[in-house]
Write a structure and sequence with these properties.
44% helix, mainly alpha, 97 residues
Amino acid sequence: MFQIRLARGDIGDAKAGRAKAAMCEACHGLNGVGLRPDVPNIGGESDIYLVAQLTHFRSGERQHEQMSIIAEGLSDEDIENLAAWYSSIQFSVTLPP
């Protein structure tokens, strides 16, 4: 059974995740910024959140027309590596004056 770790940065291989992210690039971009209004930004997101959501898509607990099919083919290691890659992306925010 897959276990979700509680410590951020404790999982996966970001380099392997970057290679695996090629399959995510059409919608989420390699940088994790959604390329369409209906695609969420996942770059810089918590690895805990990403692992949980991909696991839920894979198990069928969470449903989405495309993500459920994609996640079905991911191993635990793939999920951890993707989470490591996308969570390692850093963004900065500038508030308006």
